Amino acid sequence: MKTIRIIAILLSLILCIGAFGCKAQTQEPTAEPTAAPEATAEPEPTAEPDADLPEVDLGEYRLEKSDSNTYAYVVRTPHATWHLAAADIELLGEEMFFEGLERLLENQEADFTDAIAMLDGYLDDVPVIDIYTDFSGRTEKAKLGAYGAYCRWNVPCIEIYQPDMAFTELLHEYAHYLTHCCMRYEIDGDFWSEAIAEYVSKFICKNRMFCSAYSEDGRTALAARGFANQDGDPDIRKMYCAAAAAIRDGSMIGQTFSAVSQAPVQMTERMLEHPTLTTLSYYEAGCFFDWLVERYGKELVFANMTIGQGEFREVFGEDFETLFFEWAADNQAFCTENGLKLIGSED
After folding, report:
1. pLDDT score recorded for residue 145
2. What CA–CA distance (Å, rounded) separates 193 from 187?
3. Model pLDDT, residue 23
4. Structural domain total, the chain
């Protein structure tokens, strides 16, 4: 039986996520734990640049001093206010930190604007979101080590814990913010929450931040295996479809993966035969949600993101397993037709 490590497969070609750097992965957490980011007032922008600010190029955005002891600087964009932790800048070094931030900001606004546009008609007002860096592991979620980033719905804000994952995870977390804090429809349950975040960030948005993480060599390798679009950019949809197909064909039996319940799950034959909403992988959830929208339309799917597995027949006319296996067959046919095969699989 072939063995596949799904996450390693999809991210192994991200060869240039060095701008924020991976140094933070080997550092010990600081001794200043906090339950949540420190709330800071939003000072009015100053008319003239401060001579004490680092000389950094952030494109059309500029650095401002913060009144916070924890977050040294603030950067404002139309849809987000970044709070940059002094400990994180020291951890990575000024040059690496700000080079990474510049690369991220090049695409962030376009991606956030896309996500809002794709949900047009389903959102109320979308306030500016606060984004906090926490590479040094001060907060409780960061110390768990299981997250690259996290959206707190009750605050609301986004925290980024792993600098190398900011490019791949930020739009997913922003989708959580939009769908939980700004959407007119209610969402309940791990599946619906994660599935729509994957749908927005990986299926209907270009996700320039994600694509910018790939080096030229990585893009070439992806294109050679059919995982590139007509513009030569990584095709995230195809990568997700191929990953989901690999899980469904039994390649992951005996292996552990992260399910939408945010818990590690070991794949078994029974899970293949009788899938459940809470034990689906993120790849399956995103693909299945996209398939439901294609078949039934946004209005019906969005209006029913609180139903449990046993309520699918009432809403969609078929039970969950019937629909899920129909999606799986369609997805496999799509992968076969497009010659999609996961990198790193071994027969």
Report:
1. 61
2. 6
3. 36
4. 2
Q: Which residues span the domain enclosing 27?
A: 17-35+53-189+208-213
Please, is 345 exposed, middle or buried when counting C-beta atoms within 10 Å of its C-beta (0-12, 13-18, 19+)?
middle
Could you tell me the pTM of the whole model? 0.86
Q: Do 253 and 169 fall into the same domain? A: no
* Alpha-carbon span 290 to 332, nearest angstrom: 15
Query: What is the reported pLDDT for 229?
Result: 87
pLDDT reported for residue 66: 94
Q: Do residue 183 and residue 266 come from a single domain?
A: no
pLDDT of residue 16: 40
Write out residues in the chain with pLDDT < 70, as ranges: 1-51, 142-146, 343-347
- DSSP state letters, 270-339: HHHHS--GGG-BHHHHHHHHHHHHHHH-HHHHHTTTT--GGGHHHHHSS-HHHHHHHHHHHHHHHHHHTT
Residue 246, number of CB atoms within 10 A of its CB = 22
pLDDT value of position 52: 76
Query: What is the residue whose two structure tokens read 């192994």?
Result: 12
45 part of a folded domain: no
User: What length does the chain have?
Assistant: 347
Residues 274, 260: Cα–Cα separation, whole Å: 16
- Is 42 part of a structural domain of the chain? no
- How is residue 223 written in tokens? 């294109």
263: left (phi over 0), alpha (psi -120 to 50) or beta: beta
Helices and strands of the chain, counted as H and E runs: 14, 8
pLDDT of residue 50: 61
